[in-house]
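haha ok so turns out i had the wrong file open the whole time. this is the CORRECT one, sorry everyone. sequence first:
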Amino acid sequence: MSDIQMGAVETRFAEIIWKWEPISAAALAKHAEQQLSWKKTTSYTVLKRLCDKGIFKNEGGIVSSLIPREEFYALQSERFVAETFDGSLPAFLAAFTARKALTDEEIACLRRMIEDHKEG
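then structure:
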């Protein structure tokens, strides 16, 4: 499942689904027309592609997710760290903070997360 990917256009379409699900395919096409200036056929083509990838399902004309938004982005983050930083979260954080200082609030949040996820 960690190899599931979406391009930028697919991601914008997916965001519409996640926001409104469960949603009829017709209503989804209307949202895509309004927000993305797509024709109905484009919406149905992209929807089929995302269903084939296993991210969404279209049953009886009702579209819903197989992978929740948060889980999808967690998988993408894990893959990015694995591919770019050889799986090292400390290496990722070092690169991230090399150009952007963390706020006190962000540091406190990270400390809480570490404490909450300590193995033990």
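The chain has a mean pLDDT of 93.
again sry for the mixup
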